[in-house]
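Subject: Interface between my chains keeps coming out wrong

I've been trying for a while to get a sensible model of this assembly. When I model each chain on its own everything looks fine, but I need the whole thing in one frame so I can look at the contacts. Pasting all components below, labels as-is. Any help appreciated, I'm running out of ideas.
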Amino acid sequence: MEQVIEIKGLKKSFNGTSVLADVNLTVNRGENVVILGKSGEGKSVTIKCIAGLLQQDEGSLKVFGNEVKDMDSQELKNLRRRLGFLFQNSALYDSMTVRENLAFPLKRVAAIKDKKEIERLSTEVLEAVGLQDAINKMPSELSGGMRKRMGLARTLVVKPEIMLYDEPTTGLDTITSKEISHLILEVQRKYETTSVIITHDIPCARITADRILIMNNGHYIAEGTCDELENSADDFIRSFFK
Amino acid sequence: MTGKSIFSPILINIADQALFLRSFLRNIWKKGFEWEEFSRQSYIIGYRSIGIIALTGFILGFVLTIQSQPTMKQFGAVGFIPGMVSVSVIREIGPVIVALICAGKISSSIGAELGSMNVTEQIDAMEVSGANPVQYLVVTRILACIIMIPLLTIFADVIALFGGYAATLLDTAMSARLYFYKAISILEFSDIVPSFIKTILFGFAIGFVGCFKGFNSNRGTESVGLAANSAVVTASIWIIVIDAIVVQITNTFVYS
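Reply #2:
Try treating it as a single job with all components included. I did that and got this:
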C-alpha cells in the first residue's frame, strides 16, 4: 500500500525543551490514523510539521515521497494544495461570511474564477457537512459544532488528499462530538482522504480510527486498533480508554 | 546585564523587521494582487477615518487662528493670518497630527486584527491552505495606508483652512474669496511637495508597524492588546523620527 506520510526520527524542541523526541510514523493512503496522548505531548506539533507550518530540528518527514524541509516555497504551496488542516478552533476567517470563507481557497488555491462554479462547489460542500442554510452567516453566528463543520467544509472544498485534524471534537458536547466523528468517517469515504486525527476524545477515536498511536514523552509508545490497545497489559495505555 | 543580552533582542527585532519588509516588497510584485481586499482596506482606512480627520482638521485651523489673532493684532498683521495658518498646517501640523491620529486609529486596529488572526490560527489556516497571507493581509493594508494617509492629510489641510476661516469670521468680516486667496497664494511648490512625500512615509510607517506587530504577536489573548498598544507607540515614534529627518532634509536641500 502506498505510504503518503513517512516520518523517521523526528525531533523538535522549543527554547531547549524537547517536544518531539524520535517520532516514527507511516500513514498509508486511505487510512485513518488517530494519535492519542496527554496535553503538551507534541501531537499538534507533529501535524504542524507535516503541513510545513513548523520545521523539525532533526529527522526525516516525507509527504507523498518528498522531504518537507527541503521544499522551496512553491513546492510547499503545491504540497499544501493536497493537504487539508482542520484547526482546533476551526480558524474561520472572522471578517468573511461562510460563502466568502469557502470562496477564499477556491479562488486562490484551486484558481477558480467563475462565480457560478464557486457557488456550485460551495453549495455542494456545505450540503456534505449539513450546513447548506448557513451560507450567508458570519462565523460569529455559528455554534461550536457548526464552526467545526464549516472548518471542515472550507478544507474539503479544494478536495485534499490528506486531512489533518487537530482536536476536531474539543469543546463540543457529546452528541455533537459524535456527529463530527461520523462526519470525519463519512468524509474519508466520500472524498477518499487519508486522515491523521489528533484527539483526546476516546469515542471519536473509536468511531474514526483504523489505527491508533499513543504518544508519551515525545515518543509513540503503542500502536494498534482500539480493541487491542484497550486490552493492553500496560496500565498507562489502558488508562486512556477508561 | 551583559552587553550581549541588552542588544540581542534589539538586533533580533531589527532583523525581523528587515525580513518582514523584504517579504512585503517581494509580495507587492507577485502575481495575483488582492484588489478586492485592497479596496476594502482603502475604504476602512480612508472613508471610515473621514469624520475624525475632518473634526481634527477643522479644530486645528480654528484654534491656530484664534490663538494667533491677539499677537498678530498687536503687530497689525491680521491680514497675514490666512497665510500663516495655511503654511503651518500644510508644511507641518496637518501631516503630523493626521499621522498621529491614524497611528492611534489605524495602526492599532491593524495590529489588533492581525494579532487576533494570529492567536486564532487564521493566518496559519491561510498559509496551510496554500494562499499567501502576506499578499492578502500585509501588502493590501500597507499599500492602502500609503495611499489613504496622504489623501486624508490633503482633506484635513483643506478642512483646517475652513476652520481658520470660521475663526477669522468671529473677529473680522473677511470675505471667503480674500481669505482663501491669501491662504493659497502664499504657498510654494517647496511647501507642498516635501510635505506630501512625508505623508507617504507616514502612511508606510502606520501600515508597516501595525502589520508587523500583529503578524508577529505571541499566541495568547493578552498579546492582541499588546500588539495594538505596541503598534500605536512604535508608529508614533516612527512618525516623529521620520518628520525630524524629512524636515532636516528639506531645510538642507529645499529652503537653504
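Reply #3:
Confirming on my end. Chain A touches chain B through 25 residues (CB under 8 Å).
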